[in-house]
Amino acid sequence: MRLDKLLSNMGYGSRKEVKKWLKAGVVTVNGHVVQDDKTQVDPETDHVQFQGVTVEYRPYIYLMLHKPQGVISATDDAREMTVLDLIDPEHLTYNLFPVGRLDKDAEGLLLLTNDGKLSHALLSPKRHVPKVYYAEIEGLVTEADVEAFQAGVILDDGYRTLPADLKVIHSGEHSRVELTIVEGKFHQVKRMFKAVGKRVTYLKRIKMGGLALDEGLEPGEYRELTEEEVQLLQG
């Protein structure tokens, strides 16, 4: 890997800024000052230091974001605020992308990473990774709805969903539920309730695979996953 790319990816500035640091002579590789930004290094074996501090190479990064309402699950948009607009520059150097999506008006757990292999595994229809949502529903949610979701409901395009686990927290004119699905069709939760004559008024994803939303994160806040949490997702 080029030295300037390594330093940029590790959050030491843009390629242009890194080039200035190199010319200033504050970067060493295996104990020798290196000023050429095109120098090739092996991040796994070469000892790179910046101003005397060892550069710790991490090829992948995993962030848990509590996505707020009104923000879209995209990397770039000319008109709308995206989830990457919530991320600090030190993490943006990793070329992050969201794993899947949450509707603009939904909130909750969204994983951001640069690990394409893990993202593919979590989103693959063959894996049936469970996603758990808390939802508030306009309309009386009944046991008949629970049975219908378990059997799979037919969406507006004729697609029958895979079995879903619907738990009723409160049933009334305005119901509260918890729903677990193992697929990710466009606006799926809303369309499932529409199929049984009801409307979702609030939607929050609280879990994906073995990863649960950190209750300490306010909407718009994020943190890096722990090693244990990464292993949960990889498992």
TrEMBL record:
Signal peptide: none annotated. Keywords: Isomerase, RNA-binding. One of its GO terms (biological process) is enzyme-directed rRNA pseudouridine synthesis. One of its GO terms (cellular component) is cytosol. InterPro entries: PsdUridine_s_RsuA/RluB/E/F_cat, PsdUridine_synth_cat_dom_sf, PsdUridine_synth_RsuA/RluA, PsdUridine_synth_RsuA/RluB/E/F, PsdUridine_synth_RsuA/RluB_CS, RsuA_PseudoU_synthase, S4_RNA-bd, S4_RNA-bd_sf. The keyword Nucleotide-binding does not apply. PROSITE patterns: PSI_RSU, S4. Its EC number is 5.4.99.-. Residues 1-59 form the RNA-binding S4 domain. GO terms for molecular function: RNA binding; rRNA pseudouridine synthase activity. SUPFAM superfamilies: Alpha-L RNA-binding motif, Pseudouridine synthase. Pfam families: PseudoU_synth_2, S4. NCBIfam families: pseudouridine synthase. Belongs to the pseudouridine synthase RsuA family. This is Pseudouridine synthase. It comes from Caldalkalibacillus thermarum (strain TA2.A1).
